[in-house]
């Protein structure tokens, strides 16, 4: 079998072959897939980077892939899902990681047959070396065939979701500390709140459908997961549930932070207005007294020195009394 996609595939395809639970070969050409998988007891992993429909034609004939599944594998922006076909399953999922407060996703697809796992990476965001490392860390599970490979893939993807949620939680905790800082929340808190909320909304779209994906894989009528591997898939399912619930709670928390930010802003504005009103009342006393004494009519003390002293004392006493009263009530 010639390499899928001709000259475009070298350096973009990775292969592994297990036989009877033992890693027999890896890095072999795609053209050898047919001959190597013809033997009994073999399990194949093939990884392709951003292939086109033509690149999958040979694999379609070799593994009986459904045309609709092949079309979904090359199209971008598919939702996370698990489609069941007579001879295979089609999985669509997203790996994620954080860059600051921005969530970056990497779309990937997988064909799951009784003897092969074919992964399709639609960009460079998914760390395939981490996937291989996860498989190598569990050599005792190799005898479980495709279920072992698929568990490793889901485990890496879901762990990435969990790590992203945990990182977002840490950033939200830091945001809460800034919210009640003495120097005020500032526009930075509001900006970061919206960025975090946007990342959480995107993460929810990725994480939430994974519950149904993993749950379907564990169904006995799928005939993919045996009794021993069922415990490992259940562990992945538990992580999916925790990541989903955590994401939901963080979305609510960010909404609360935004509302609290507006409440704090309103309260501080009220405090400022209260202080300004107090000072305005104090300043109004000298204005009223001097305005009264500035009338062009005779009054007690008019044109005499003691009249000036009386007006000054009147201003000082009334202003001081207002200041003391406002201060005692916490207005100043």
Automatic annotation (TrEMBL):
Membrane topology: Multi-pass membrane protein
Primary location group: membrane
Location(s), subcellular: Cell membrane
Transmembrane segments: 276-294, 306-326
Keywords carried by this UniProt record: Membrane, Transmembrane, Transmembrane helix
InterPro entries cross-referenced by the UniProt entry: MgTranspt_CorA/ZnTranspt_ZntB
Pfam families according to UniProt: CorA
Organism domain of life: Bacteria
Name recorded for this polypeptide: Magnesium transporter CorA family protein
Organism placement in taxonomy: Bacteria, Bacillati, Actinomycetota, Actinomycetes, Pseudonocardiales
